[in-house]
Specification:
The longest helix has 22 residues, at 297-318. Helix 1 packs antiparallel against helix 11, helix 3 (71-83) runs parallel beside helix 8 and helix 9 packs parallel to helix 11. The protein starts with a helix and ends in a 16-residue tail after the last helix. The model has no long low-confidence stretch (mean pLDDT 97). The protein is α/β, with parallel strands linked by helices and 409 residues long. The chain has helices at residues 4-13, 42-59, 71-83, 96-110, 125-136, 152-155, 178-187, 279-289, 297-318, 345-354, 378-393; strands at residues 30-31, 90-93, 116-120, 143-147, 160-166, 191-195, 214-217, 231-235, 324-325, 337-341, 357-358, 360-362, 366-370. The chain is 34% helix and 13% strand. The structure holds pyridoxal-5'-phosphate. The site of pyridoxal-5'-phosphate has 13 residues, from helix 4 and helix 5.
Length: 409
């Protein structure tokens, strides 16, 4: 039997425990939704105030020449370290859906005699919408095949220009085989684009070893960059100067302040800049990234797996047969979240939130719990399951007030 004392001991022995102090968290609340929006860190707050009170207030427009302009590539390199990229391969800019549009548009031009994009029917909807929209506007007929990802190998052939997949499934928390799938896609001469929204800062990634062509991810989940934080784009070095940004803007020009009529792409990843960087938002992300320098993705992964294992074990022990654990038990196939299926999942999540355990619901029937190893404690996992047991045994989810669907779930 797993006891609270065992969990307290795990926290006492946890080398990462002190990192929790980097964040501002509500007393008594258990935050298991960092896979949707990470919490604010003290350093993020400090950097934002520094930009407001010192840089913007006093340096005004001079700020652009005093470091602001380099923020997207500087932060890109820091995010790059978390995904195994080389210097100069990552840029922080835009938002994730927007970056996927850019990459899909660019990639189609690199395979002009192929007409199929493959993606996954379980993909995040925004990816599906934007891929369809870009394909519809392509300069030649392009078909988007939305397949069951288990059939991917069967669907791969020399009609396929590009495959786009989300590495960790937002609903189930399943992690796909980054290197294996990328290899299979390359074997038919197609290009591979990964969405790392639920992977970056949550699972170790090595885009260089896996030979990934392109990727993008967001800044507001496990990276804790703040609501609507800028996203990041990864373009493998071999494609620099080859893959064209289909949405060019002045700051991706080789000489932006010459104000030339014709576009000429800047060298390297800078070509993927379209617009003026959002300096206040970048300051928050920069502060948030500080904490990652105090640990490693290997250490974070070990704790994340221990937390998710503990949650699954406790659910099986105390709530046997109540939920279906839809997240894979196999460590190699698990992100940093656990999803529980239940016909009343919406009400269950609402009742839990009322008890101070913050998770979320994903239609039609999944309660999602994110375990961010930077700040979630083992004892939090224990207490969260304790409150879940109460919600289920007292059937609190049946309360009509927990059945009213909010606009954001
Ligand atoms: C897997 C995945 N892809 C794309 C997005 C969309 O990101 P954005 O709103 O930054 O465009 C999300 C948002 O949560 C996501 O989870």
């Amino acid at each position: 039997m797993i006891t609270r004392e065992i969990c307290q001991r795990l926290d006492a022995e946890d080398a990462l425990a002190e990192l929790r102090d980097a964040f501002t968290l509500n007393d008594g609340e258990i935050y298991l939704d960092g896979n949707s929006l990470g919490p604010v860190s003290r350093e993020a707050r400090r950097r934002v105030l520094e930009v407001l009170d010192q840089q913007w207030a006093h340096r005004l427009v001079r700020g652009w020449g005093e470091g602001w302009m380099a923020q997207p590539t500087r932060l890109g390199n820091r995010v790059g370290q978390l995904i195994g990229a080389r210097e100069g391969e990552v840029l922080v800019a835009d938002t994730l859906t927007f970056l996927i549009a850019k990459l899909v548009g660019g990639a189609l031009d690199l395979r002009p005699d192929r007409h199929v994009i493959l993606t996954d029917r379980a993909n995040f909807h925004s990816d599906l919408y934007i891929i369809e929209a870009v394909a519809r506007r392509a300069s030649r007929p392009v078909t988007v095949k939305v397949i069951d990802r288990d059939n991917l190998e069967r669907e791969l052939n020399d009609d396929v220009a590009l495959v786009e997949l989300t590495h960790v499934d937002f609903r189930t928390g399943e992690a796909l085989d980054l290197a294996g799938i990328t290899r299979a896609v390359h074997e038919v001469g197609a290009l591979m684009l990964w969405d790392f929204a639920h992977s970056t800062g949550a699972v170790p990634l090595d885009v260089t070893a896996a030979n990934v062509d392109f990727a993008a991810g967001c800044g507001y989940k496990y990276l804790n960059g703040g609501p609507g934080a800028p996203a990041f784009i990864y373009v493998r070095q071999e494609f620099h100067g080859v893959l064209e940004n289909p949405l060019p803007g002045w700051l991706g020009h080789a000489r932006p302040f010459e104000f030339e009529l014709a576009y000429e792409a800047a060298p390297g990843i800078q070509a993927w800049v379209t617009s003026s960087p959002s300096i206040i938002a970048l300051a928050a992300l920069e502060g948030a990234l500080e904490v990652f320098a105090r640990t490693s993705m290997t250490a974070l992964r070990a704790k994340s797996l221990a937390l998710t294992d503990l949650f699954i074990d406790l659910v099986n022990e105390k709530l046997a047969g109540v939920f279906e654990v839809v997240t894979p038990l196999d460590h190699d196939r698990r992100g940093s979240q656990v999803s529980l299926r239940h016909g009343e999942a919406y009400g269950v999540v609402q009742a839990l939130i009322a008890q101070g355990v913050i998770g979320d619901f994903r239609a039609p029937d999944v309660a999602r719990f994110g375990f961010a190893p930077l700040y979630v404690r083992f004892v939090d996992v224990y207490d969260a399951v304790d409150r879940l047991v109460d919600v289920m045994s007292a059937e609190r989810y049946r309360d009509p007030k927990f059945r009213v669907r909010n606009a954001v779930t």
